[in-house]
Amino acid sequence: MMKRIDLPTTKEVIRELKxxxxxxxxxxxxxxxxxxxxxxxxxxxxxxxxxxxIDLEGSLMFHTAVSVAGIGPTSSNKLEIEGTMETLSKAGxxxxxxxxxxxxxxxxxxAENDSAYLVIPPVTxxxxxxxxxxxxVAFDELGMEALHELIVEDVPAIVAAAGGRSIYx
Length: 169
Hints:
alpha/beta; single chain
């Protein structure tokens, strides 16, 4: 059975998720990968998100770039991506979406910060068909790796890590 999650979401919704749950995501999501996530983490450390028009509370961060070729996940266990998950989770990101296995300490940290990790197969055509709107939010100079905001409808994903447990264990 698929669970529906509308974004932004709450800590309570995240606490109910279990590894292996299949979900459908609708609402506003952010995209970021290697180039932009460290920049977002730096804005968080400077307490400068709001002045840059970014509100991460209850959000989902999709580890991807946005290009004319489509939208597909990148590996979440890259240092620049996995290394920012704690900062982003503390700033309100409730779900991280990508692909690949995370370190056990990252899985534990996500639970401690009421966040979850979701995986999605690399199906760019499906994701493009589920995307209603795309706009650049910050760091436009990074092109397809800028921080983008997408409005999506019924994007399927699998909960890979929640509550300190992972499907990879």
